[in-house]
């Protein structure tokens, strides 16, 4: 029992379960089958969290190397804008081949943007927060240039399948995110890649002296994050069947960083937890849905969210827990637990 | 060394801007020296919806037609950007400043600066809550409260004489913005007389499609029976339609939908029977704005409150109006 209590993901998991419980109570259909696929609040949450899972997943890898990427929202906006612009020019918007090709183009553009960030950080040697700030600001401008400041509508069924479709009763968007998570876990935990990432995050110089291509690994994580952000941008724009270059991915970098932190990855780099990040992303999406389901007045939305996030972060601090709960126990107040989150 | 360098650069910049200021002053005071064009600085809220982009296009086109030089800036939905834009216009010494405020409060300081600089200010589309009305010349735009009332009156008529509760959910605009506040109170006032009409849930969708969709998904799950959706703009309504379809319900039939704005995408959905009623909020105020700008510049008195001309649309009216719709 105490080992479960001490697991660093115990408290976030508990908060998620409590919130899901509230939703199960307030919603008509929590999980059910309708039109041959799963349906209900839980499915809405999983589907809606897909873009954030993708972005936070890539962000975890970047943070593991001691970096950070603020430009993910802008990359999402550019990728959605490129895709919607090209699709709206198609003669037949329902042609699966052309849509797939366009999705490929949008992801290539996003990978290139990731390469730009990676090159600035690893080759030019600019601090990550500054290097990616450039694309964060300029990228949204680029997205607006692509769409000419307008909202571009598309009427393409294959494209909207990306967000609203179902495959094997599960939402396509969630399957894409789950696939990306599975692939990343496989590559980082079943090969030496994860170890290399952690060593670069721990000390780039020591890693280089030990014969690890630290520079190459750093560029690679930014490219991967660019690709994931691009994919997230496609899902977000397919969800509303239009490219909205102003609001697409706006402030998602903060949610992604929050998801990474909730998951227990240290912002200074080194140690990382992919499952923790996924948990964090789902918690954030559940919180959004809960605010509406419980009927928190719009004016109090942000306050409610911050209270939950503060409670979440405090619950992960062993020192805080010991100070608050320790009074009720006969044991010594402060107890050293593994690694502080 | 570095310090002296930056001081030198700063000094240089100041000198250049002072020179620019001088030449500009000379131009306007001299009269005939320049081409006599009126310079209008306009700060737009952003491009958050189809309505807003139509509004932007109308202002740009009317300025061109009226021979007014337009300095256009986009605040991207943030008040701090808009205040910076307006301060920029004051520094540039434009002839007239017009802007569509992102939120209602917090404008006194920057408006006083404009007044002190002798630059007249015209508000478009959204009002400010400044108690000192001498801070601006005129407010051109719709009466959002009337729009909310029109929406409510249609609903009250639709359910007149029928018994049984009608569950209404409301998608509000950006929290704290004038259209969100007024469309909410106007609607509530109009349905007050009929106790069967009940607003069961209200939440902000920030005037955006994506938010309209996610909030409606949750409404559909947390309210046992939704009869009516009232969305403060077309875009949130369009997002909500996607959520309603995904839930296996028929928008316009299973759930009656009322929206405000009447942009092209909204009108298309209305004509297709997915929306039931749209209260128009015309973005085409460019011509009225340019007339007012010219009058203000010529020193003529202008009305403190100018209403834009607008109507309402049912599904049949939308079908008739759609082919000639400009936005």
Automatic annotation (TrEMBL), chain A:
Q: How does it sit in the membrane?
A: Multi-pass membrane protein
**According to the lineage, what is the superkingdom?**
Bacteria
Where does this protein reside within or beyond the cell? Answer: Cell membrane
This protein's record includes keyword Transmembrane helix: yes
Q: Does the keyword Transit peptide apply?
A: no
Alphabetical GO CC annotations of the entry are: plasma membrane
Tell me one GO molecular function of this protein: transmembrane transporter activity
Swiss-Prot/TrEMBL keywords: Cell membrane, Membrane, Sugar transport, Transmembrane, Transmembrane helix, Transport
Membrane-crossing segments per the record: 48-65, 96-116, 128-146, 166-187, 217-236, 256-284
Write the protein's name: Simple sugar transport system permease protein
Give the species: Actinoplanes philippinensis
Starting at the broadest rank, the lineage of the source organism is: Bacteria, Bacillati, Actinomycetota, Actinomycetes, Micromonosporales
TrEMBL record, chain B:
The residue range of the signal peptide is: 1-20
Pfam families, per the entry: Peripla_BP_4
SUPFAM superfamilies per the UniProt record, alphabetical: Periplasmic binding protein-like I
- The Periplasmic binding protein domain sits at 41-300
Q: Where in the cell is it found?
A: Cell envelope
InterPro entries tied to this protein: Peripla_BP_I, SBP_2_dom
As one GO molecular function, the record gives:
carbohydrate binding
GO CC, one annotated term: cell envelope
Write out the entry's keywords from A to Z: Signal, Sugar transport, Transport
User: What family is this protein classified in?
Assistant: Belongs to the bacterial solute-binding protein 2 family.
Q: What is the protein's name according to its record?
A: Simple sugar transport system substrate-binding protein/ribose transport system substrate-binding protein
